[in-house]
């Protein structure tokens, strides 16, 4: 039996990160049904119940030490853990977990990471020092490869792959249909458009633009607009602020959903507009045309990997350009869905390759 410890931003009710963990557990277990997985989590009980794995608290130093010491592999990832834009302290936390594994002789793999931005001389040096000591690095985009090169990380085996969520299976759309029905939305009665927003640095410009676009979608396409929270409850509050700026009634889904439910809800949509990275990935998995608004390089990098570009950033997104994109996607939904399906098939294979490489590290120990 292989013992694997996973370190990441888990147990914090962020749907994108929980989807990454679900996909990682799914693929690792498919390749080795006897694998024993322990997750370092902000909420161990929630992680145990949600994912069916062992879990230890992220501040439980004794538990982390014991789990890492008996592990055959420490996986750091996936996601944008190794950056210090959203938090200066978290970078050092994840690097110290890796350092602990190195001290204990446990091999480490950076798994489908989005690397950077990392600012500050000491932070960049420490990242370079730790990065050159791990056994394997896979990154989810080519922008991360450039960042690794700039940090001087060259010693471990490095491969570009894809975000773990790409490996997750499509789900039955009836689950999402039932959720929508419970909130008074009948699938098939009107076209449905999903919008996923988040708070960022107190910005308000994008909220006004998105609210105007939501109104125009209702008027021009006779559609219903549904706001989907990816981080609960923060995204519900932000969505309610945007909906309050609109003239027409908008549906803000008020609950927290698991990965399968979110995928199913998105699968019932004709179009998705999102700031959240993993809402965009969910759209790709479920074959739904997408439009991204960027707040972070990881959004730009993902969209580039599927032949798309963000319509703008939170600071400069333009209403007319957004509507131009919406009309283009709306008028050729089948074409964009087919294009995305072909690209996502390749990304799915790359995402599954992460787990294959993880087991190759264990076999070499």
UniProtKB/TrEMBL annotation:
Residues 14-297 form the Polysaccharide pyruvyl transferase domain. Coiled coil: none annotated. The keyword Membrane applies. It holds the Pfam family PS_pyruv_trans. The chain crosses the membrane at residues 91-112. It comes from the Bacteria. Keywords: Membrane, Transferase, Transmembrane, Transmembrane helix. This is Polysaccharide pyruvyl transferase CsaB. It comes from Anaerovibrio slackiae.
């Amino acid at each position: 039996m292989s013992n694997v410890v996973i370190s990441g931003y888990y147990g914090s009710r962020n749907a994108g990160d929980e989807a990454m963990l679900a996909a990682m557990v799914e693929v690792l277990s498919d390749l080795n049904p006897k694998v024993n997985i322990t997750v370092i989590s902000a909420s161990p009980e929630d992680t145990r119940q949600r994912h069916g794995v062992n879990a230890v608290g992220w501040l439980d130093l004794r538990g982390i030490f014991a789990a890492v010491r008996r592990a055959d592999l420490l996986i750091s990832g996936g996601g944008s853990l190794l950056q210090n834009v959203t938090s200066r302290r978290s970078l050092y936390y994840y690097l110290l977990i890796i350092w602990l594994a190195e001290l204990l002789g446990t091999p480490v793999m950076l798994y489908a990471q989005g690397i950077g931005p990392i600012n500050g001389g000491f932070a960049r040096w420490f990242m370079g020092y730790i990065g050159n000591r791990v056994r394997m690095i896979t990154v989810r985009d080519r922008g991360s490869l450039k960042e690794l090169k700039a940090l001087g990380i060259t010693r471990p085996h490095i491969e570009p792959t894809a975000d773990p969520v790409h490996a997750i299976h499509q789900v039955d759309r009836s689950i999402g249909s039932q959720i929508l029905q419970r909130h008074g939305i009948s699938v098939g009665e009107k076209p449905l458009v999903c919008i996923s927003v988040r708070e960022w640095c107190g910005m308000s410009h994008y909220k006004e633009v998105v609210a105007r676009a939501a109104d125009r979608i209702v008027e021009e396409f006779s559609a219903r607009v549904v706001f989907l929270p990816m981080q609960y409850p923060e995204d519900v509050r932000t969505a309610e602020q945007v909906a309050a700026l609109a003239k027409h009634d908008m549906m803000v889904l008020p609950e927290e959903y698991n990965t399968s439910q979110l995928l199913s809800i998105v699968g019932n949509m004709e179009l998705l507009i999102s700031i959240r990275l993993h809402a965009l990935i969910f759209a790709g998995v479920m074959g739904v045309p997408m439009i991204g608004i960027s707040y972070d390089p990881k959004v730009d990098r993902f969209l580039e990997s599927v032949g798309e570009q963000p319509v703008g950033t939170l600071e400069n997104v333009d209403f007319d350009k957004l509507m131009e994109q919406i009309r283009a996607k709306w008028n050729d939904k089948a074409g964009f869905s087919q294009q995305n399906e072909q690209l996502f098939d390749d990304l799915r294979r790359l995402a599954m390759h992460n787990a294959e490489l993880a087991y190759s590290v264990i076999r070499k120990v």
